[in-house]
Amino acid sequence: MINLNQYHNYYNIKPFLRGMIPKLTPIFGSKTKAQEVLLLLNDAKEVVRHGFYEAELPAVEEFCKDNKIFLIKSKFKVLLEDKDKIFSNKGIRIDENDPRPGMWFVYLSKDEKKALFASYAELTNNHGELGRLLGYPQCCIEFFCQNFNENNTNLELSPTNSWTNLSLREKDAVLLSHFPCSSECEESIKLAQKYFEVINKADSEYAKQLVISMNLSIPEQ
Predict the structure, then answer these.
(1) Which residues contact 129 (CB under 8 A, 6 or more apart)?
(2) What does the DSSP assignment read for 28-96?
(3) CA distance 205 to 221
(4) What gap in Å lies between CA 191 and CA 135, rounded to an integer?
(5) For strand 91-95 and strand 103-109, is the pairing parallel, antiparallel, or unpaired?
(6) Over the stretch 181-221, which tens digit does the pLDDT of each residue have?
(7) What ranges do the domains of the chain cover?
(8) Residue 150 burial class via C-beta count within 10 angstroms: exposed 0-12, middle 13-18, buried 19 and up
């Protein structure tokens, strides 16, 4: 199991680690999830939320325990309608004791209260508060709250800006975990560029893959 304390700190900002995405991916199941955890570890995100099946949880729980990350598990499971897709917004909640193999949501944070608050916000369908805890731009939170419903679960827009492009999520090439209110949302673009900067310092090879896959235009310093 990976314990970050065993690695050298190559940058003077928290545990930036060379080549961490390949190390984290087998634990969390995808490069995108590994990327989110990397952002959490380096304080670019305060709370991360992801779904895992029962068999996937032990490795995730062990990693979090070893690296001082609080993990709160949802009080319900979700049966996904699109089981074969990496990303799915369609599903039904079932009781945590239901024998059917649903997916658990877990809320990860260095701050236990924030992980608990995120769990409670989702349990009570407080999308606005959940979005705030997850660090989404206010304009995008409002967009989601106004448009998301059981008949409209995919708010992905036609991409016109590579930084906010969600269309490559299935290929594990994405920087944002929220639906931008527009492809040209300035706050979302700033967030994506901030995340890319952290990723690039932590794993330059993986960052190069994102540049190619997402056709990113890197701003001049």
Answers:
(1) 117, 121
(2) HSSHHHHHHHHHHHTTS-SEEEEEE-GGGHHHHHHHHHHTT-EEEEEEEEEEES-TTSSS---EEEEET
(3) 20
(4) 9
(5) unpaired
(6) 999 999 999 999 999 999 999 999 999 999 999 988 776 55
(7) 4-214
(8) exposed
Report pLDDT digits (tens) over 141-192: 999 999 887 777 677 778 889 999 999 988 899 999 999 999 999 999 999 9
* Separation CA 72–CA 85 (nearest Å): 25
Distance, in Å, from the CA atom of 197 to the CA atom of 19, rounded to the nearest integer, reads 15
Which of 21, 4, 25, 2 shows the shortest CA–CA distance to 198?
Answer: 21
Distance CA 18, CA 204 (A): 8
3-state helix, strand, coil in the chain (%, to 5): 45, 15, 40
What single-letter amino acid sits at 67?
N
